[in-house]
Design brief:
The protein is mainly alpha-helical. It has 16 helices and 3 strands. It has 2 domains: about 45 residues; about 240 residues, Receptor-associated Protein. α2 packs antiparallel against α7, α5 runs antiparallel to α6 and α12 packs antiparallel against α13.
């Protein structure tokens, strides 16, 4: 999939710009037409439009982006020009990566480009909803309001991500420490008893023989096994990156017990948050759903949304075609129907995202609460098994030495 920057005209003659991914130029042109626009050009972006160092997107940068965009909205609301507001933001930013991002934005705006185009040129830094909401704010003359909503949406998304990551830290550390203890015992502790047991090797208990064999195997083939695991991991990762393979995996993940509903809720929450923010920012539904579709990591759900987006061009609603896919939670469909009936679709989507985010957070915390003692007991049992196998051999050896 390549990335194309397009220019198109609306029914009223207003020029629109944006970025879309597609397998070819003709594919992108067809997608632009499905947005209800008249395509003018579509050019593949083979390099960054602005010079400067490669910006690494990490958690600190994402958090800083939401804060800086919120500050930019406040400055614009206070009456500063966009150029001056960006300059003030650059002066107030201490982190080098974030400062580089806003320097690019300021330089692009000073060259006469719009903020939405400047965001598009910072490829990979801003999520797809950011330039779309900026463009909607520019068209309506309320860029400060659009940026305020954008900052809030980015902040909520990062807060949920940090909650999930923080919840996984303790089980990961527990697993790492327990694995390290077992490796130390097999590599350094067990070999200390090898000479002691060498004279009675055939009389060792079965579990002791298993532990000794595991120690020998780890010392002899551990490095080769590690390299093989790395190679298999890289090969498996590339294999799963294939669209056909990923599509099958994503479809099966949605039908897994426990994890299937969790993935559905997490994906739906992210999609609803993005779509609701775009609609509140003034982006038309047909365009907003195409942009919000990019927030879906599950390819099977993303393809279903693509079919829904095509149906919207024919005048259909949103809740009914989404219900026909059978992939979205019933609660989400209820919120959508209410939003359509009350003409408050953006509001209901944001409320839906809040509810689903809370459900996802609670489910993950419950899973971790169950997973932590399971890991503790399993690793403790392995360590105890190694110790018990050695002790049983020592006791058996002493019995032999004291026997008649």
């Amino acid at each position: 999939m390549a990335t194309y920057r397009y220019r198109a005209a609306t029914a009223t003659g207003t020029l629109r710009t944006g970025v879309l991914e597609g397998s070819s130029r003709n594919d992108v042109i067809e997608r632009v037409k499905r947005l209800g626009l008249m395509p003018i050009e579509a050019v593949e972006t083979t390099s960054r439009a602005t010079d400067g160092p490669v910006i690494k997107v990490n958690s600190a940068l994402r958090k800083g982006l939401s804060n800086a965009i919120g500050e930019l909205a406040v400055l614009l609301n206070a009456g500063l020009s966009l150029d001056r507001a960006l300059a003030v933001c650059v002066e107030n930013i201490a982190k080098p990566n974030l400062k580089a991002v806003f320097l690019r934005l300021r330089n692009s705006v000073r060259q006469g480009h719009s903020l939405s185009r400047a965001m598009n040129e910072c490829e990979g830094v801003f999520p797809p909803m950011a330039p779309a909401m900026a463009e909607a704010g520019e068209a309506s003359g309320r860029l400060d309001d659009s940026l305020t909503r954008l900052g809030e949406a980015l902040d909520r998304a990062e807060a949920l991500r940090q909650t999930i990551v923080s919840s996984l830290v303790y089980p990961a550390l527990l697993l790492l420490i327990a694995t390290s203890v077992i490796l130390v015992m097999l590599l350094f502790v067990v070999p200390q008893f090898e000479e002691l047991f060498s004279d009675v090797g055939g009389k060792l208990p079965f579990m002791t023989q298993v532990v000794m064999a595991a120690s020998h195997g780890l010392k002899a083939y551990g490095l080769a096994g590690l390299l093989m695991l790395i190679v298999l991991g890289i090969a498996g990762y590339r294999w799963m990156k294939r669209p056909s393979v990923r599509r099958r995996i994503d479809r099966r993940l949605l039908h897994m017990p426990v994890f299937g509903p969790l993935i559905r809720n997490a994906e739906t929450a992210r999609f609803a948050r993005t779509l609701g923010s775009l609609l509140d920012g003034g982006v038309p539904l047909a365009s907003a759903i195409v942009i919000a579709r990019k927030s879906l990591a599950n390819m099977h759900m993303a393809e279903a949304v693509d079919r829904v987006a095509s149906g919207l061009k024919q005048g259909g609603g949103l809740s009914r075609p989404l219900a026909a896919t059978g992939l979205f939670p019933p609660m989400a469909l209820s919120f959508l129907r209410t939003g359509e009936e009350t003409a408050q679709l953006g509001l209901m989507l944001n409320r839906l995202a809040d509810v689903l985010d809370r459900d996802v957070r609670n489910t993950i915390q419950r899973l971790i609460a169950v997973m932590t003692p399971i890991i503790t007991v399993a690793m403790g049992a392995l360590v105890a098994g190694v110790i018990a196998s050695i002790m049983s051999a020592i006791l058996g050896f002493n019995d032999l030495a004291l026997g008649p």
